[in-house]
Amino acid sequence: MNNDSVFKTSWSDASETEASYTRLSVPALLSAFFGLSTFLVYFSYWFFFLGVIALLLSLFALWTIRNAEGILVGTSLAYIGLSSAVVALVSVAIFWATYQYGVRREADQFFRLWFVAVQQGDIPRAREYQTLYANRSKVASADEWWSTQYQNQHAHRAIHQYVENKLIRVLMALGDKAKVSYYKTLEVTSEREADTVVSVYAITFPAEFGRTETFFVKISGKRAYPSETQGFKAAGWRIDGLPAVYLPDEFK
Fold it and tell me: How much is the mean pLDDT over the chain?
């Protein structure tokens, strides 16, 4: 009777000791650390990998805790890591999508100004759009701009080469008859102090027998700040390189 009583007491104590033993899940702890660190992605998109690690660790931690039958704890930490990573990554994704949409809109408005200038034969304005914003000449009129350029032999030669470009000559010849329409964006890149947009525009013009014809132009623009040595910063767009006739892949 006594032996039976001792046996029952020992068995009961062992069960209580085993049931009370728990330990913290290491993946849950790490997921919380990486999840909170994911907010560094606001400073640089290179920290995006922290969010991916946090997501994987938190999901693994929740799975192991659920299957540990009460031995592992740390569900709250896993959820902290999961929620922090999701909030940081989603908010940054929304921010960059909105930011790049704004960049594309600004670039589109600037590109259209260049097309209008060339179609109107306003070479001074078209050329200035291809110069860094802070370095553009502050001339009062087109006549003054021409006289200033002709005083420089290299500038004079560059202007002739510019006007002799086939695309420039076609746009000038078509003038207002050409309808410029946005077609698509090939590339949008954002660096620390510069945004670059490469877009394609469809140029439609009337042809013989009441028909219309279309060709495409690839144009690249960059919005950047002037160098620090100039003493101030003023963001502005410029045409990067000379636009050229382009055939989209879907028409090849």
Answer: 83
